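Hi W.,

Here's what went into the run:
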Amino acid sequence: KAGVTQTPRYLIKTRGQQVTLSCSPISGHRSVSWYQQTPGQGLQFLFEYFSETQRNKGNFPGRFSGRQFSNSRSEMNVSTLELGDSALYLCASSDMDSYYEQYFGPGTRLTVT
Amino acid sequence: LAKTTQPISMDSYEGQEVNITCSHNNIATNDYITWYQQFPSQGPRFIIQGYKTKVTNEVASLFIPADRKSSTLSLPRVSLSDTAVYYCLVGVPEDSWGKLQFGAGTQVVVTP
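Here's what came out:
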């Protein structure tokens, strides 16, 4: 099976812009989670989607949003970018029986200038 | 989710066994213990999961004492490619709905 893919891999944006990141889960996986990783805060959970519904959400401002499509692909959007949003954004997928065994993609490195 | 404490860093030489101990004093009865590995600029990778006693797979072993207040990840005969950050997670899948709570992890550096 193909692994989790994320596009784009690298992105440079300026403050105030918005950005959309895409994630394609492993075939058959219906749960998709998003994480932000920064040197200062480490890995932090953003949100999780299952069957197009957000089931869980981390402690991030409303500028961070996401959605999931019927084919389980997911997107996350960050509006009004801030310098502090520079991070590695990771997507992970899992199947219904093993939420703790998540398969991560390579991530999207976002730089906000 | 139970809080975990693990060493910030560990150094080792190639061929040695590396043991990383994670403390989780307030682990709940239903909690599982899970370890992830992360290489620089990559997403974490699931290594092993256990509930009690000992679990072994092709990558590592996980030792869990009877009181389950700690666990030890054992990496046998490490190589340079085992240099990574290792995370210990404790919780119950049904409570988390896709949320993994990562701590700071342990940076393992393997040198020749």
